[in-house]
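Recall that a protein's primary structure is simply its ordered list of amino acids. Everything else, from secondary elements to tertiary packing, is in principle encoded there. The following example makes that idea concrete.
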Amino acid sequence: MRITTRNARFQQWQAQLANRSKRQRAREFLVQGVRPISQAVAHGWPIRALLFDADRQLSRWARELLAEARAEKVAMSAELLAELGEKDEGAPELVAVAELPADELSRIPVGPDFLGVLFDRPTSPGNIGTIVRSADSFGAHGLVVTGHAADVYDPKSVRASTGSLFALPVVRAPGHREVSAWLAGVGTPVTVVGLDEDGEADVADFDLTGPVLLAVGNETVGLSAGWRERCDAVLRIPMTGSASSLNAASAATVVLYEAARQRARGR
Protein backbone atom coordinates (compact mmCIF):
# COMPACT_ATOMS: atom_id res chain seq x y z
CA MET A 1 0.00 0.00 0.00
CA ARG A 2 1.16 3.54 -0.72
CA ILE A 3 -0.21 6.72 0.90
CA THR A 4 0.67 10.09 -0.59
CA THR A 5 -2.32 12.15 0.55
CA ARG A 6 -3.90 12.90 3.89
CA ASN A 7 -6.53 10.23 3.42
CA ALA A 8 -8.75 8.76 6.16
CA ARG A 9 -6.18 6.21 7.24
CA PHE A 10 -3.41 8.76 7.56
CA GLN A 11 -5.72 11.04 9.53
CA GLN A 12 -6.53 8.18 11.92
CA TRP A 13 -2.85 7.64 12.69
CA GLN A 14 -2.21 11.37 12.93
CA ALA A 15 -5.06 11.72 15.46
CA GLN A 16 -3.55 8.97 17.60
CA LEU A 17 -0.49 11.11 18.25
CA ALA A 18 -2.47 13.59 20.33
CA ASN A 19 -5.78 11.94 21.11
CA ARG A 20 -5.94 9.32 23.85
CA SER A 21 -9.52 8.38 23.00
CA LYS A 22 -8.53 7.66 19.41
CA ARG A 23 -5.76 5.35 20.60
CA GLN A 24 -8.11 3.54 22.93
CA ARG A 25 -10.82 3.18 20.33
CA ALA A 26 -8.44 1.77 17.71
CA ARG A 27 -6.49 -0.25 20.32
CA GLU A 28 -3.22 0.89 18.76
CA PHE A 29 -0.53 3.55 19.11
CA LEU A 30 2.44 4.87 17.15
CA VAL A 31 6.04 3.94 17.95
CA GLN A 32 8.81 6.27 16.80
CA GLY A 33 12.56 5.71 16.82
CA VAL A 34 14.98 2.91 16.01
CA ARG A 35 15.40 1.52 19.52
CA PRO A 36 11.72 1.60 20.56
CA ILE A 37 10.67 -0.09 17.31
CA SER A 38 13.45 -2.68 17.62
CA GLN A 39 12.50 -3.40 21.22
CA ALA A 40 8.84 -3.77 20.35
CA VAL A 41 9.68 -6.36 17.70
CA ALA A 42 12.27 -8.13 19.87
CA HIS A 43 9.80 -8.53 22.73
CA GLY A 44 7.08 -9.89 20.50
CA TRP A 45 4.63 -6.99 20.59
CA PRO A 46 1.96 -7.27 17.90
CA ILE A 47 2.87 -4.77 15.17
CA ARG A 48 -0.09 -3.95 12.96
CA ALA A 49 1.72 -1.84 10.38
CA LEU A 50 5.15 -0.53 9.46
CA LEU A 51 5.09 2.86 7.76
CA PHE A 52 8.19 3.67 5.70
CA ASP A 53 9.59 6.40 3.50
CA ALA A 54 8.92 5.35 -0.08
CA ASP A 55 11.36 7.84 -1.61
CA ARG A 56 14.66 7.09 0.13
CA GLN A 57 17.29 4.38 0.30
CA LEU A 58 16.52 2.56 3.55
CA SER A 59 19.16 1.33 5.97
CA ARG A 60 19.91 -2.34 6.45
CA TRP A 61 18.01 -2.23 9.77
CA ALA A 62 14.88 -0.89 8.10
CA ARG A 63 15.09 -3.29 5.14
CA GLU A 64 15.51 -6.33 7.38
CA LEU A 65 12.67 -5.25 9.63
CA LEU A 66 10.33 -4.77 6.69
CA ALA A 67 11.31 -8.16 5.30
CA GLU A 68 10.93 -10.09 8.56
CA ALA A 69 8.10 -8.43 10.47
CA ARG A 70 4.63 -9.88 10.17
CA ALA A 71 2.87 -6.58 9.69
CA GLU A 72 1.25 -4.58 6.95
CA LYS A 73 3.81 -2.48 5.07
CA VAL A 74 2.70 1.02 4.07
CA ALA A 75 4.83 3.26 1.87
CA MET A 76 4.41 6.98 2.52
CA SER A 77 5.67 10.24 1.17
CA ALA A 78 8.43 11.77 3.28
CA GLU A 79 6.24 14.74 4.16
CA LEU A 80 3.49 12.57 5.65
CA LEU A 81 5.89 10.26 7.45
CA ALA A 82 7.65 13.27 9.00
CA GLU A 83 4.35 14.33 10.54
CA LEU A 84 3.80 10.91 12.08
CA GLY A 85 7.42 10.70 13.22
CA GLU A 86 7.25 14.15 14.86
CA LYS A 87 10.85 14.83 13.92
CA ASP A 88 12.12 18.40 13.73
CA GLU A 89 14.32 17.67 10.72
CA GLY A 90 13.37 15.24 7.98
CA ALA A 91 11.32 12.07 8.00
CA PRO A 92 12.23 8.91 9.93
CA GLU A 93 12.84 5.70 8.03
CA LEU A 94 10.07 3.86 9.83
CA VAL A 95 7.14 4.43 12.16
CA ALA A 96 5.43 1.39 13.67
CA VAL A 97 1.78 0.98 14.60
CA ALA A 98 1.64 -1.30 17.65
CA GLU A 99 -1.33 -2.97 19.29
CA LEU A 100 -2.37 -1.82 22.76
CA PRO A 101 -2.10 -4.62 25.34
CA ALA A 102 -4.87 -5.40 27.82
CA ASP A 103 -4.79 -3.56 31.16
CA GLU A 104 -4.66 -6.74 33.24
CA LEU A 105 -2.67 -6.70 36.47
CA SER A 106 -2.01 -10.40 35.99
CA ARG A 107 0.49 -9.40 33.30
CA ILE A 108 2.87 -8.41 36.12
CA PRO A 109 4.58 -11.45 37.67
CA VAL A 110 4.71 -11.48 41.48
CA GLY A 111 7.10 -13.81 43.28
CA PRO A 112 9.44 -13.87 46.30
CA ASP A 113 11.77 -11.32 44.68
CA PHE A 114 9.01 -9.02 43.41
CA LEU A 115 9.88 -5.37 42.88
CA GLY A 116 7.13 -3.23 41.41
CA VAL A 117 6.40 0.46 41.00
CA LEU A 118 3.09 2.24 41.26
CA PHE A 119 2.64 5.77 39.89
CA ASP A 120 -0.49 7.46 41.28
CA ARG A 121 -2.21 10.03 39.03
CA PRO A 122 0.85 11.24 37.06
CA THR A 123 0.28 14.31 34.92
CA SER A 124 3.40 14.11 32.77
CA PRO A 125 3.72 11.39 30.11
CA GLY A 126 7.46 12.07 30.09
CA ASN A 127 7.65 11.14 33.77
CA ILE A 128 5.80 7.89 33.08
CA GLY A 129 8.28 6.97 30.37
CA THR A 130 11.24 7.88 32.58
CA ILE A 131 9.97 5.70 35.43
CA VAL A 132 9.38 2.83 33.00
CA ARG A 133 13.00 3.17 31.88
CA SER A 134 14.32 3.26 35.45
CA ALA A 135 12.15 0.34 36.54
CA ASP A 136 13.44 -1.74 33.65
CA SER A 137 17.05 -0.70 34.34
CA PHE A 138 16.95 -1.73 38.01
CA GLY A 139 15.19 -5.05 37.61
CA ALA A 140 11.60 -4.20 38.52
CA HIS A 141 8.89 -6.58 37.37
CA GLY A 142 6.25 -4.05 36.34
CA LEU A 143 4.67 -0.64 36.68
CA VAL A 144 1.07 0.17 37.61
CA VAL A 145 -0.38 3.60 36.76
CA THR A 146 -3.49 4.47 38.76
CA GLY A 147 -6.21 7.08 38.78
CA HIS A 148 -6.89 9.93 36.37
CA ALA A 149 -3.48 10.04 34.75
CA ALA A 150 -1.46 10.92 31.70
CA ASP A 151 -1.48 8.17 29.08
CA VAL A 152 1.15 5.46 29.13
CA TYR A 153 0.94 5.29 25.32
CA ASP A 154 1.30 9.01 24.66
CA PRO A 155 4.21 9.47 22.20
CA LYS A 156 6.12 11.46 24.85
CA SER A 157 5.88 8.54 27.27
CA VAL A 158 6.86 5.98 24.64
CA ARG A 159 9.89 8.05 23.59
CA ALA A 160 10.99 8.73 27.19
CA SER A 161 10.98 5.01 27.93
CA THR A 162 13.56 4.49 25.11
CA GLY A 163 12.07 1.07 24.39
CA SER A 164 11.68 -0.15 27.97
CA LEU A 165 7.89 0.10 27.63
CA PHE A 166 8.11 -3.04 25.49
CA ALA A 167 10.29 -4.95 27.97
CA LEU A 168 8.38 -4.17 31.18
CA PRO A 169 4.68 -4.86 31.85
CA VAL A 170 2.90 -1.54 32.35
CA VAL A 171 -0.74 -1.70 33.43
CA ARG A 172 -3.32 1.00 34.11
CA ALA A 173 -5.74 0.53 37.03
CA PRO A 174 -8.53 2.72 38.48
CA GLY A 175 -7.14 3.04 42.01
CA HIS A 176 -5.88 1.52 45.24
CA ARG A 177 -8.87 -0.79 45.73
CA GLU A 178 -8.26 -2.66 42.48
CA VAL A 179 -4.52 -2.91 43.11
CA SER A 180 -5.09 -4.07 46.71
CA ALA A 181 -7.47 -6.77 45.49
CA TRP A 182 -4.82 -7.93 43.00
CA LEU A 183 -2.11 -8.04 45.67
CA ALA A 184 -4.41 -9.97 48.00
CA GLY A 185 -4.79 -12.68 45.39
CA VAL A 186 -1.21 -13.18 44.22
CA GLY A 187 -0.27 -15.55 47.04
CA THR A 188 2.83 -13.58 48.04
CA PRO A 189 2.72 -10.94 50.81
CA VAL A 190 3.82 -7.66 49.25
CA THR A 191 4.94 -4.64 51.28
CA VAL A 192 3.60 -1.38 49.87
CA VAL A 193 6.13 1.40 50.41
CA GLY A 194 5.17 5.02 49.71
CA LEU A 195 7.55 7.88 49.01
CA ASP A 196 7.15 11.28 50.65
CA GLU A 197 9.48 14.06 51.76
CA ASP A 198 8.03 13.69 55.29
CA GLY A 199 8.38 9.91 55.38
CA GLU A 200 8.93 8.09 58.65
CA ALA A 201 12.31 6.56 57.71
CA ASP A 202 15.14 6.99 55.23
CA VAL A 203 15.04 4.64 52.24
CA ALA A 204 18.50 3.27 53.06
CA ASP A 205 17.33 2.23 56.55
CA PHE A 206 14.37 0.19 55.29
CA ASP A 207 14.58 -3.40 54.10
CA LEU A 208 13.68 -3.42 50.40
CA THR A 209 14.86 -6.96 49.72
CA GLY A 210 11.48 -8.68 50.07
CA PRO A 211 8.46 -8.41 47.77
CA VAL A 212 7.90 -4.65 47.51
CA LEU A 213 5.62 -2.29 45.63
CA LEU A 214 7.02 1.27 45.56
CA ALA A 215 4.22 3.85 45.46
CA VAL A 216 5.07 7.22 43.88
CA GLY A 217 2.59 10.07 44.05
CA ASN A 218 1.38 12.77 41.70
CA GLU A 219 4.08 15.31 40.78
CA THR A 220 2.31 18.16 42.60
CA VAL A 221 0.25 16.73 45.47
CA GLY A 222 1.89 13.37 46.10
CA LEU A 223 0.02 10.19 47.00
CA SER A 224 -3.74 10.22 47.37
CA ALA A 225 -5.30 9.70 50.81
CA GLY A 226 -6.34 6.20 49.77
CA TRP A 227 -2.81 5.22 48.86
CA ARG A 228 -1.35 6.80 52.01
CA GLU A 229 -3.67 4.63 54.10
CA ARG A 230 -2.81 1.56 52.06
CA CYS A 231 0.98 1.96 52.45
CA ASP A 232 2.68 -0.28 55.00
CA ALA A 233 5.48 2.29 55.31
CA VAL A 234 6.21 5.76 53.97
CA LEU A 235 9.87 6.55 53.31
CA ARG A 236 11.85 9.69 52.60
CA ILE A 237 14.97 10.36 50.58
CA PRO A 238 17.46 12.30 52.72
CA MET A 239 18.45 15.58 51.08
CA THR A 240 21.08 18.14 52.07
CA GLY A 241 20.65 20.87 49.45
CA SER A 242 18.14 23.69 49.22
CA ALA A 243 15.62 21.68 47.18
CA SER A 244 12.68 20.45 49.23
CA SER A 245 11.90 17.46 47.06
CA LEU A 246 12.81 15.56 43.92
CA ASN A 247 10.92 15.18 40.67
CA ALA A 248 8.67 12.11 40.90
CA ALA A 249 10.63 10.18 38.28
CA SER A 250 13.95 11.10 39.95
CA ALA A 251 12.68 9.99 43.36
CA ALA A 252 11.49 6.67 41.96
CA THR A 253 14.88 6.14 40.30
CA VAL A 254 16.73 6.76 43.58
CA VAL A 255 14.63 4.23 45.49
CA LEU A 256 14.79 1.67 42.68
CA TYR A 257 18.57 1.96 42.79
CA GLU A 258 18.55 1.49 46.57
CA ALA A 259 16.35 -1.59 46.24
CA ALA A 260 18.66 -3.04 43.58
CA ARG A 261 21.70 -2.26 45.75
CA GLN A 262 20.24 -3.99 48.79
CA ARG A 263 19.24 -7.03 46.76
CA ALA A 264 22.65 -7.33 45.11
CA ARG A 265 24.34 -7.08 48.51
CA GLY A 266 22.15 -9.85 49.88
CA ARG A 267 23.07 -12.38 47.20
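The chain is about 35% helix and 20% strand. The first strand starts at residue 2 and ends at 3.
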